[in-house]
């Protein structure tokens, strides 16, 4: 593989950093607790502002959740947003990204990705092809997000039993839910970045007349091939940019709602296009096929090394390009107190027509299509004997097919229905939560009429104990079933983007996950923190088992074996005294996850441990921060997987908020990888062909009106 020598050279001594996270967090908490004990607490300690988590089902505050949750909103979201959802969230504890060039990057939560992390838009399931393969983009534009919530662990059964990693909820304003306070409300934002010559713009407008409210929004971005850190030399070349890492995209949406005193009902149409390259694509393997459990590439195959060297001299015409089009219609509504005993009725329905062509030489070599319909109904009841909760039903119909040279997924139709029930009970300083869900799924391979059905009942229990003001101890247990996806059941063919030949197994059974989570958090005073530990034992875990490797091409057989995921994640911030008129704070954050199969072997592409320290300050209208993030090496690798060296990154940011004639606006500047470090993402299929970005300066301006 490319850059193998630099990989090995950088690994020595770095793997010990994985042990630093739990030790550092424990030492920090002990230090902060000692300092608090020696210093009298203030009369009224400042508390973190409460944030509503809409994906909780009952619109709970973040401090009331039984499982860890991250909520990005306001200025924090504005400055953290990136071109993809994975990049936007990857700095959150417990969250990584798949990293497939600049056009596709999906969140990885607690070591799990793909269908084990469900992405929803205001509670409605997104339907694209990103769960099929990491080179497929998520059909969501971060620039248009108003709030992003990350629920870790499988306890969010109101969304899915299969999301054993977690749920990512992207809140948008495409369907208006309330009348604007002014005749016209909205925002506009411009930003630019240096590493890829990126430019982006976004806007949103909302206006109303009586009960009718109209909303329109749009975003456009364009970026060339991005630069990587110093020292990258694939096959002896001195390339500074990753060939085929360019990305362009447009998103537009218009929505109309009827908004009354008792609720709303609205409809929106969203159209998204994208065009991005697939770095690391290797030719000469198109004729590879299987003989039993072995690969055979025949006399037509060209050795990878020779062809790879030649590819670096080609332009974009030799790089496969994804040409994506997604059109979606959303129907959303809420009726508050329609009858005695009913607090609210909620509706989410959507219809998605998604396709993307993988172009080679300007010609569509493979086409992926996904047509899906989903419907979600919830009924929230008034408190009964102290119990507050909801019941609901969620149905999905999905027709997926691929045509062309790399049609490794046979045409399939999947029907899924789930019914769920959630209740909470509060007693003194305690909050208890219980959820129950039953799912039925049928997946059919259309050509052979092969059909498989799976069903399962999932349950979760959780509790939060606010044992003293500003402190909370939370714990949860979840037993969840995940039915295999159509791709895991029926895949059969070559997938050059990930250099795999994939074979499904129509006899796969449902996974059974038993997850235990415990966390401690403090949300008031000069010292605030949140620390969580989890252990997830998954029976019949479905994974791609490598049977053979030829010229870097892997033969993957979807198989089942018990697996265990164990991890720790947390962050802590200490407010310091004011100096030079600046309100200072220093923080520590990090995460670590270990994943192994029952036979003791490691799972592939598990993110290494991270540990970071951050110094932030606020003075008047100015805000700033600087941080160092250390990522350890990853030597716990699966068979035929290469280890990845560790690296450290220096990041910084500065923002200023002001007003012009009563209109608020802000200017921000952030620097990423300021030391221009060469870094590889172990979670990526193409880590050595597409390293992480080098030094990158991002500047932006935003106006709210």
Automatic annotation (TrEMBL):
Residues 1-37 form the signal peptide. InterPro entries: Beta-barrel_TonB, Beta-barrel_TonB_sf, Plug_dom, Plug_dom_sf, TonB-dep_rcpt-like. The keyword Glycosyltransferase does not apply. Residues 270-674 form the TonB-dependent receptor-like beta-barrel domain. PROSITE patterns: TONB_DEPENDENT_REC_3. Pfam families: Plug, TonB_dep_Rec_b-barrel. It comes from the Bacteria. It is found in: Cell outer membrane. Residues 64-167 form the TonB-dependent receptor plug domain. It is a multi-pass membrane protein. Keywords: Cell outer membrane, Membrane, Receptor, Signal, TonB box, Transmembrane, Transmembrane beta strand, Transport. Transmembrane segments: none annotated. Belongs to the TonB-dependent receptor family. This is TonB-dependent receptor. It comes from Acidovorax lacteus.
């Amino acid at each position: 593989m490319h850059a193998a020598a630099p990989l090995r050279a950088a690994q020595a001594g770095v793997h010990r950093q994985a042990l630093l996270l739990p030790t550092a967090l424990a030492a920090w908490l002990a230090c902060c607790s000692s300092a608090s004990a020696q210093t009298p607490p203030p009369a009224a300690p400042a508390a973190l502002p409460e944030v509503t988590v809409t994906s909780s089902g009952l619109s709970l505050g973040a401090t009331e959740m039984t499982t860890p949750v991250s909520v990005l909103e306001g200025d924090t979201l504005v400055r953290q947003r990136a071109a993809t959802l994975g990049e936007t969230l990857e700095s959150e504890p417990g969250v990584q990204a798949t990293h497939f060039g600049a056009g596709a990057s999906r969140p990885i939560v607690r070591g799990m990705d793909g269908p084990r992390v469900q992405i929803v838009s205001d509670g409605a399931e997104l339907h694209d092809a990103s769960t099929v393969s990491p080179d497929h983009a998520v059909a969501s534009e971060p620039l248009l997000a108003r709030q992003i919530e990350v629920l870790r662990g499988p306890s969010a059964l109101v969304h899915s039993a299969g999301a054993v990693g977690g749920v990512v909820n992207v809140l948008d304003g495409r369907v208006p839910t309330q009348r604007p306070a002014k005749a016209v409300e909205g925002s506009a934002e411009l930003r630019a970045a240096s590493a890829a010559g990126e430019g982006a713009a976004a806007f949103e407008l909302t206006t109303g007349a009586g009960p009718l409210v109209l909303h329109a929004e749009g975003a456009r971005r364009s970026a060339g091939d991005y630069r990587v850190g110093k020292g990258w030399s694939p096959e002896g070349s001195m390339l500074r940019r990753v060939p085929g890492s360019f990305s362009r995209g447009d998103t537009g949406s218009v929505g109309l709602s009827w908004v009354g005193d008792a609720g709303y009902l609205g409809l929106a149409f969203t159209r998204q296009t994208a065009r991005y390259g697939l770095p690391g694509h290797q030719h000469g393997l198109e004729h590879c096929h299987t003989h039993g459990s072995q690969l055979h590439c025949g006399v037509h195959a060209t050795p990878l090394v020779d062809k790879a060297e030649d590819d670096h001299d080609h332009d974009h015409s030799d790089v496969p390009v994804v040409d994506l089009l997604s059109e979606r219609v959303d129907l959303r509504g809420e009726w508050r107190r329609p009858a005695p005993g009913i607090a609210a009725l909620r509706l989410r329905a959507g219809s998605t027509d998604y396709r993307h062509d993988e172009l080679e030489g300007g010609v569509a070599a493979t086409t992926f299509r996904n047509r899906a319909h989903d419907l979600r109904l919830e009924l929230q009841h008034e408190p009964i004997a102290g119990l507050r909760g909801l019941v609901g039903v969620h149905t999905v119909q999905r027709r997926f097919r691929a045509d062309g040279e790399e049609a490794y997924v046979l045409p399939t139709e999947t029907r899924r229905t789930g019914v769920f029930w959630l209740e909470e009970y509060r007693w003194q300083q305690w909050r208890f939560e219980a959820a129950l869900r039953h799912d039925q799924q049928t997946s059919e391979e259309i050509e052979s009429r092969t059909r498989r059905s799976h069903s399962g009942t999932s349950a979760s229990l959780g509790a939060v104990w606010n044992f003293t003001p500003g402190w909370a101890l939370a714990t949860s247990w979840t037993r969840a079933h995940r039915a295999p996806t159509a791709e895991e059941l029926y895949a059969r063919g070559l997938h050059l983007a990930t250099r795999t030949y994939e074979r499904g197994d129509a006899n796969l059974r449902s996974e059974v996950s038993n997850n235990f989570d415990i966390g401690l958090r403090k949300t008031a005073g000069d010292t605030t923190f949140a620390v969580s530990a989890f252990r997830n034992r998954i029976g019949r875990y479905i994974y791609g088992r490598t049977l053979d490797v030829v010229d870097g091409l892997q033969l993957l057989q979807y198989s089942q074996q018990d697996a265990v995921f164990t991890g720790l994640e947390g962050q802590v911030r200490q407010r310091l005294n004011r100096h030079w008129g600046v309100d200072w704070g220093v923080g520590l954050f990090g995460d670590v996850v270990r994943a192994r199969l029952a036979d003791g072997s490691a799972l592939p592409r598990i993110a290494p441990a991270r540990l970071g320290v951050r110094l932030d300050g606020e003075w008047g209208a100015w805000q700033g921060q600087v941080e160092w993030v250390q990522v350890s090496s990853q030597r716990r690798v699966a068979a035929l997987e290469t280890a990845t060296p560790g690296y450290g990154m220096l990041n910084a940011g500065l923002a200023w908020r002001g007003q012009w004639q009563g209109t608020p606006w802000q200017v921000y500047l952030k620097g990423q990888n300021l030391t221009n470090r060469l870094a590889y993402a172990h979670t990526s299929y193409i880590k050595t062909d597409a390293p992480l970005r080098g030094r990158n300066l991002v500047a932006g301006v935003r106006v709210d009106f």
